[in-house]
Write a structure and sequence with these properties.
141 residues, two-stranded antiparallel sheet, 4 helices, 48% helix, flat
Length: 141
């Protein structure tokens, strides 16, 4: 520790010298004599292995029955594509029941609820006869 006679500048210089003398710790993996393409290929292969592990995880999940009415086709498309962590599930908007894992099903249900909320807001805003405020802020659309 610095004595009382030293200034703060002397103390800081001493700490900087100690840090410079200490061995450097690197958190990145040491890559020697590897081209950038090899490093990128290694990272890609590692990511693909993780993705394939997710596929087996999602296949092991409990299945949930999902059916999407043709009513939602103009809003979501004729086929609803849901991607979670790079895993794609496509569900047609034809009213038939399909069994999908819970994770993807929850995301698809969320999409449907958003469309329902949007349609509800549009209907409230379009009902001009009942859209009258007696005081500012009374009407909530």
């Amino acid at each position: 520790m610095a004595s009382k006679k030293e200034t703060i500048d002397d103390f800081l210089n001493e700490v900087v010298e100690e840090q410079a003398a200490a061995p450097k710790k690197t958190t990145a993996p040491v890559v020697e004599n590897r081209s950038t393409e090899a490093v990128h290929e290694h990272n890609f292969n590692r990511t693909e292995a993780k993705r394939k592990g997710l596929v087996s995880k999602y296949r092991a999940e409990r299945k949930v029955a999902i059916s999407i009415s043709p009513f939602y086709a103009p809003y979501l498309g004729s086929v609803v594509r849901q991607i979670v962590n790079g895993i794609v599930v496509d569900i047609p908007c034809n009213g038939q029941t399909y069994y999908v894992n819970e994770t993807h099903a929850s995301h698809i249900i969320t999409k449907i609820k958003r469309v329902d909320a949007m349609i509800s807001r549009q209907n409230k805003a379009g009902d001009v006869k009942n859209n009258f405020e007696y005081s500012p802020g009374q009407l909530h659309i």
